[in-house]
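Journal club prep — side note

Before the paper discussion, L.F. wants everyone to see what a predicted structure for a comparable chain looks like in token form. Sequence:
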Amino acid sequence: MQDNDLDIFDFRRIFMGDVAPEFLIETVIRIVFIYILLVVSLRMMGKRMSSTLNRNEMAAMVSMAAAIGVPMQVPDRGLLPAVIIAIIVIGTQRGLAFLMLKKSKFETITQGNISTIVHDGYLNLKEMESTGFSKELIYSQLRNEGISNLGTVQRLYLESNGGFSLVKKDKPSPGLSTIPFWDKEFNDLQEKDDNVMACINCGKLFEKQPIDHDTECNHCGSKKKTSATYASEE
């Protein structure tokens, strides 16, 4: 179709395209076939494809979507190429899964390492910088887990698939509050420890001194401190 042939009021072309009306029936058949092909393919890729996807599985999903989209809409494209592509994607994904199972180093190369974001009640700022996660995002994740205080956290891991894993301390200690500073009403409800200060930047704890306003945090170098709080009672 040439540009000068376009008609903005040609509703048949807008809704039907340049195909015969009979192609609508064929489209239904193609969609049903592709849908079944997708379901079977995902089933063959394993149960993880219906859960959280890792990098390889995400690449397989995107490849499948890109490959099978055209045969559903273009009348001069057959369905057999979509089947062949599905077989290749499934074989590749299963092969990579087998290699990751047998060789942990290969899994690390393809998926990345697990990062420790919170360590013994304070933030690992270097890991946060390398992974691109802000403090507010970490605090939000902890609040979703019912954590109002870093002193409750033994470890917070960032898994290779982007999810978080939380390990709580057996005996929670005072720590930096995860409640937003502007929520003064909620912050005032938290019990504070008069003898322990927390670095506002990373949450590292310090014994309160008579004059310690200029003391740098030995973990991050910040001089800003606040009173540590106790975990809220559950």
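L.F.'s comment for the group: The first strand starts at residue 115 and ends at 119. Keep this in mind when we get to the figures.
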